[in-house]
Amino acid sequence: MNARQAETIDTLKRVCLPVFLAIAGLSTAVAQETVDTDKLFKEGIFLREQGQVFSAIEALETVLSNNPSLNRARLELAVAYYRALNLEQATQQSQKVLDDPKTPENVRLAVLTFLAQIKRDQAELLAKPHTWEPSVSLGVLYDTNVNVGPSGATLPGGLVLQPGSTPQHDWATVAQAGVAHTYSSPMVMRIGETAARFIWQTSAGLYHKNYAEKTDFNLTALSLSTGPAWVAPNKWRAKLNLQGDALYLGGNYLGFYSSISPTFTLQLKSGELTWDALALNKNFDRQADAGRDSNFYSTGLSYGHLFLQGKLAVQLGLHAFVEDAADSRFSNDGWETFVGANVVAWENGSVFGRYSYKEAKHDGLEPVFNLARDETENRMEVGFGHNFKESVLKDWRLSGSWQFTDSRSNVSIYTYEREVVGVNLGRSF
Q1: Residues 297 and 325: beta-carbon distance below 8 Å
Q2: In a 3-state reduction of DSSP, which class is residue 296?
Q3: Phi and psi (nearest 5°) for 362?
Q4: How far apart are CA 61 and CA 258, in angstroms?
Q5: What is the pLDDT of residues 189-242, one digit of tens each?
Q6: What pLDDT is stored for residue 157 in this prediction?
Q7: What is the DSSP string of 29-65?
Q8: What is the pTM of this model?
Q9: H-helix or E-strand containing 124?
Q10: Which of 44, 67, 74 shows the shortest CA–CA distance to 57?
Q11: Is the pLDDT of residue 13 over 60?
Q12: CATH number for the domain whose boundaries are 3-126
């Protein structure tokens, strides 16, 4: 339910409730024809406001079966049907009140507003069961450590790394294109006391990063994802995503990633609590990478909260992971935590910041060093975004970011620092 819909229902309550007892010659005595009816009516209202809309519908339907002229209960029933996403029944019950010649004029106006909202919802749902959203973007970045080279150039025993193994810097262009499809079913699913709509989302995308000089590190990714989702307005949403990524490095096929990731988000008063999980299979093509073939698993929780009337969003989270690789020196487990914020800083523009910390412990011993890797990673990112609302760039979004990574390891060749700064211009159609 969006703000407009919520406002419509609030208006209906505010205008209608004080005069419902006057509708159709009702009196307090009629509304309380029997003790059981009155009790059931109050119970229905209570259940509805507690989110138990289907139990509320049953209670209010029983009230009306005993007293069909009780239009106060009928309008309360219409609101319950609306919250249960049964727009047809919400319309029918509201129309019966509207058709009653004894309905006061101010109540008529409130009901008409309510019916107009239902009509808009129905039109939107039926008119666009399928939506397509193409998108494109183009950007440029500067990378201080293209090859993720170690901070130190000296190995145990005094061996010195080749110049090409030390950190290499370069400029790159980044291009992205994709299309997303969403199917929204008009059918309503009942899950316990919750009404939910079924959605199926699919997307395909192309990503290409092209370095000016260090072309061996050019990266191309072809991605396809699909999966079902269920949305219970103002309560929760759930999604199951299946994804495949074909990766190319330096123009050569690198490997294929396939994954499945369930997500469940519980909507709270001013925030959201999200659980997510990931099962990822990494299958590399090059013989040199055979030991990196692995199954990666992670799960965790995150919480987001809105402040300042929605202008400031803060999110934090914690995840645990484990990776089982063909070569034990690439197998690892650990945890990661993050905190981030996004604030509306000017009209049509915002700034954001994010910090994450990760620890990972590897199983097998590294050659030469004869150590199992223990690593920590600190990552910071700040950036901005601006949506153009007029001129030749109308509907385009300009964004920029700076990212700094500081990775520390007991195996020196895995200790490195990296900065990436870039700007990007893109839009959805």
Answers
A1: no
A2: strand
A3: -95, 155
A4: 50
A5: 888 888 888 999 999 999 999 999 999 999 999 999 999 999 888 789 999 999
A6: 56
A7: HHHTSSHHHHHHHHHHHHHHHTT-HHHHHHHHHHHHH
A8: 0.78
A9: helix 105-127
A10: 44
A11: no
A12: 1.25.40.10
Q: Which tokens hold the place of 187?
A: 């059918």
Average pLDDT value for the chain: 87
β-pairing verdict for 170-191 and 236-249: unpaired
Q: Which of 167, 152, 145 is nearest to 369 (CA)?
A: 152
Domain 135-428 sits in CATH 2.40.160.60: yes
Give yes or no for a contact between 404 and 144, defined as CB atoms under 8 angstroms apart: no
Nearest residue to 137 via CA among 397, 403, 421? 397
Task: Output DSSP code: residue 104.
Answer: -
- 135-428 has the same fold as 3-126: no
Q: Which residues pair with 283 in a beta bridge?
A: 256
Kindly list the domain boundaries of the chain, sorted by start residue: 3-126, 135-428
Pairing of strands 332-346, 271-284: unpaired
The closest of 206, 231, 229 to 219, measured between CA atoms, is 206
Q: For residue range 63-101, list pLDDT tens digits in order.
A: 888 888 888 888 888 888 888 888 888 888 888 888 888
- State the number of CA atoms in the 13 A half-sphere of 187 facing the CB: 9
Q: How many residues does the chain have?
A: 429
CA angle 229, 5, 91 (to 5 degrees): 90
Model confidence pLDDT, tens digit, residues 306-332: 998 889 999 999 999 999 999 999 999
Residue type, 121: D
H or E segment to which residue 11 belongs: helix 3-16
